[in-house]
Amino acid sequence: MKHYKTVLFDLDGTLLDTSKGILGAVKYAQQQMNLPSLPDSRLREFIGPPPVESYKRIFGVDEAIAQQAAFFHRKYGSERGLFEAQHYPGISELLQNLKNSGRFLGVATLKREDTAQKILAHFNLKQYFDVIAGIDTKEQLSKSDIIQAALKEMGQTNASAVLIGDSQYDAEGAEKAGVSFIGVTYGFGFSDAKDISPYASADSPSQLLALL
């Protein structure tokens, strides 16, 4: 198994279960904007992608309405939603083991960078990371852009780096950025190893350690 010098993590569905806060943020935005009611199965599609993109795609609204909805979405998230997340069992132990082995650790998330910093600090995970890279305030960066920005800030190359993530967005971003990818099935996107093939997969943080 390849030894990766640099390990990057997605946040939602990989480091933390943020589903409760994200669904709450969408429902708050729905109320504020009088958007139509949708089942939770559709609202779960908000987990992962940037909010503006999701409001346009899922509710079929234009850019201006999507921006307004995203404002309320972030308001709920920063004031309440980020505190509603939960650790995945074994994540802290995984990060500590990787840190002890001398790896460079980073976060590459489609969350806004300031929000990612706050949530990781609140759940005592920020201490493990050399860099936390997220989307810009205009939400114009892609996943591959964020991966490359994280590597540049750490002074590392893509040849010895891997991204850990739970969705096709993560897999595609890793491929475009030229880094390896390992998918996890305990998050929101992938349900089993077949979804992740031909990439390596893990069902838990403890299994991840064996792959790294």
Q: What key attributes describe this structure?
A:
Rossmann fold; 10 helices; 212 residues; two-stranded antiparallel sheet; 2 domains; alpha/beta; DNA polymerase, domain 1; 46% helix
Q: CATH topology of the largest domain, what is it called?
A: Rossmann fold
Number of strands: 8
Q: What percent of the residues sit in helical stretches (DSSP H or I)?
A: 40-55%
CATH superfamily of the largest domain: HAD superfamily/HAD-like
Question: How much is the average pLDDT?
Answer: 92
The arrangement of helices and strands along the chain is: EEHHHHEHEHEHEHEHEH
Percentage beta strand: 15-25%
Using the CA coordinates, give the radius of gyration: 17 Å
- CATH architectural designation of the largest domain: 3-Layer(aba) Sandwich
Distance between the termini: 8 Å
Main beta-sheet annotation: 6 strands, parallel
User: How would you classify the helix and strand content by structural class?
Assistant: alpha/beta
Outline type: globular
**What is the spatial order of strands in the main beta sheet?**
5-4-1-6-7-8
CATH class of the largest domain: Alpha Beta
Supply the number of structural domains: 2
Helix tally? Answer: 10
Low-confidence stretches: none
Overview of the molecule:
The chain has 212 residues and is α/β, with parallel strands linked by helices. The protein folds into 2 domains: 6-17 and 86-211, Rossmann fold (3-Layer(aba) Sandwich), CATH 3.40.50; 19-83, DNA polymerase, domain 1, CATH 1.10.150. It has 10 helices and 8 strands. The strands form 2 sheets. Strands 5-4-1-6-7-8 form a 6-stranded parallel β-sheet, with helices on both faces. α9 links the parallel β7 (180-184) and β8. It is globular and about 50 Å long. This is Phosphoglycolate phosphatase. GO terms for molecular function: protein tyrosine kinase activity. One of its GO terms (cellular component) is cytosol. It comes from Hydrogeniiclostridium mannosilyticum.
